[in-house]
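ok so dumb question maybe but i'm new to this and my supervisor (M.) told me to 'just get the structure for Chloride channel protein' and walked off. so i did the thing. is this what she meant?? sequence i used:
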Amino acid sequence: MRPSTALRQKNRIQHLRRSARRTTSQWRRTLTYWLGAVLVGVVAVGFAGTADWAARARGRLLHWDPYVMLVVVPAGLAFSTWVTRRFFSGAQGSGIPQTIATLHIENFSIVNRVLSLRIAFAKIVLTCFGLMVGASIGREGPTVQVGAAIMHGFSRLLGTASVSARRGAILAGGAAGVSAAFNTPLAGIVFAIEELSHSFEQKTSGTMLTGVVLSGVTAIALVGNYSYFGHTDVDVPLGTAWIAVLTCGIVGGIAGGSFSALLIRFSKGVPGRIGALIKARPVAFAALCGFVLALLGLVSHGATYGTGYMQARAIIDGSEHYPASFFVLKFIATVVSYCSGIPGGLFAPSLSVGAGIGGWIEQYLPHTTPGAVVLLGTVAYFSAVVQAPLTATVIVMEMCDNQQVTLALMATSFLAFGVSRMICKHALYGALADRFMEAAHSATPAPIYTRSSAAPAVETLAEQVEKKD
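this is what came out, is it supposed to look like this??
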């Protein structure tokens, strides 16, 4: 054999060995991410079951004596705020703004803290505790942060050095969280593109799509293939029925835009002596918020407590009819719950408020199917709050298992989005994420965030980073 031939064979063998090692490494990485996506589905189902148990425990308290909530809610919110600020900084609020921010923050020491498994565990426990004591919060937003934390944890376990790959894992985890929480895989994909990343990169799309599918399949395997709001067989034919599209789009847009504007304004801090008092006594302020929630619960006969899922489903299927005061009181209860600073999401309460708006409007529109008007009100308010019209359309469409109203849902969603933009120029989650990122991008080693009553998670997190570094 000639030397040149032997050399070529040697090089070919070395190339095959390197390819084999690379293929093995890629498969190990892929299987690890698949395992992470399955775990997201398992945790999301467990989270949902625990949240349902918490709601039942609250129901037993209300059945025993509704007035006991005048003590339970203030004490519960004060305790949750104290525990969160003292031991689990980073667990406050929805979790979606934090997830969005981690996709853009360059300092991964901050990302590792925000998306730590410790914070994810606290997010689950404290959200369920908040639901048990009567806060108007949801579990879906926290599930996004928990899913992102799980996938980020697997990314760290693999020793991933690529920034784009680590962010791809976070994006996949957040999308998988939405998919498993609502049993809406398509909505998980759209949410990741429209709200979390605002883009669709080829490098991360495969990981995200696979994560969404696996987490969704896991949830279905554990609890069955269900629809969040059951099946609704309604339609909105072209013609006079589309008056409901205009009405719901405008009313829902005004209400949702006002809600977002209020929360963004509060996140910037309350001026004057009241703001100084809130900043100095956050636990006492949380107790005051709890007392307000208890009063709202007494006035509404308990309808404003918790996620509002049961009320929304009853309004959609027509089994219950609530007065206009329901969505007004639920709106206030959700604002108060957020302002208290406890962990908890906005998705489910927003769907409940939207269903209440639709249920109120439908009585004035006899020429449109009542159930269809309720769905339009739901998508309008939800779209106006999150300012993500495609996500809102797909979520509501999948949750009610009805494709007949897709066109009307989309038209209402985009109209509500436009109205909301006139009231609130910035999307709620994006605005809150921007404040988080401003904190992360400020001077180092100087404090990366100035003290603000609205963002204790960030300010405490900054102090922890400084001590660590």
